[in-house]
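REQUEST ID: PR-0412
SUBMITTED BY: lab tech R.K.
PRIORITY: routine
TASK: structure prediction, single protein chain
INPUT:
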Amino acid sequence: MPLPRHPFSVLIVAAGHGSRMGSDTPKQYLDLGGKTVLRQTIDVFYGLPGLQEIHIVIDPAHKALYESSITGLSLPTPCYGGDSRKESVYRGLLSFSNALDNDILLIHDAARPLVKKDRIFDVIQALENESSEAGFDAATLALPVSETLRRGSNGIAENFVDRDGLWAIQTPQAFRYGPLRRAHETAPPGIYTDDTGLVSAMGLPVRFVPGHRNNIKITTPEDLDWARGHIMTEPEKGVRIPETRTATGFDVHAFTEKGEKNAVRLCGIDIPAPFGLVGHSDADAGLHALTDALLGTIAAGDIGTHFSPADPRWKGADSRVFIEHATGLVRRKSGRIVHVDLTILCEVPKIGPYRTVMQESVAKMLDISRDRVSIKATTTEGLGFLGRREGLAAQATVSVEFPREPDHDPEMTQG
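STATUS: complete
OUTPUT:
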């Protein structure tokens, strides 16, 4: 593939919140192949021939997530974004204080980590092959629309849309710095979803460069799952094929005397009852079993190893603290929680009416979708201490996906 003949810089826009992902963590900081989505995107550009600088636009509220993502990289101080994509990009443009009008600048979405390097070079070459006098100061990766298109209202199909000449826009988009900055500063009011719209509003032509269907913008959980599967087939990403580890946890707590408490705490939810559970913390057997299962996937002992029942700090503690600690340890080893299966064993209280809200509670704590959390309940048919209604038990099974580590072979270390 032909390499750029001129130096270029890159602005990566990472200031969004990704509300359609349905995650408390912004999508650009979710895990993708053992790195964040943003880090995978940066790594595509980092070290490319001809690259001068990479600037990143972030939300100031995400600074800690950003700093964690770029460990080991030498990058300029990030820019802080604004209330719209246009404002965020403009602030990023101003951060290139030494840029000249004819310099080449690429604008790229943080949520497009699968862009191919040859397509990056193609969009740069589109500017290099055309002088500014010929009128081409902007180019973008794009794909011809191949699907049948129809308008619709309230879920009802309406008129067909002629797809002839329609293109789906991707990034990166390449610009001469001067015309792009002037477009940001002088374009007429309007809704601009990308920067080619701004330069087109100023009357500047934009060249289409064939993109690639894998260069998706990660927007939904389904997009992220697809990207996770795809990235394992990309040798240049340097991602090891994952392995899945499964571990279990088990916990038991006795009931208090009637009238001593008025709710049983399970999975962070208070279930009304004329009694509660006995324990040093909040005695949430469901979360305790889940904590042990998570720790088991990284062979990190059990809950007592990390939170001694003899330590007064944990007296009456919310068991969410234990879950946060265990998930933090798992994620520091690049673990991705794939599935949780939790069984509550008790005669009372009745779990069924609270199962859905318990699922939602656990899913939120683990930052995974609810359909990855299974919660069931069963009895012991009147047998044993559970049958005598003296307490309850919880059993958890957790599956976590980790980057595969090289197997250690003792014979290989012998001389």
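NOTES: The chain has two domains: 8-147+165-237, 242-403.
REVIEWED BY: pending
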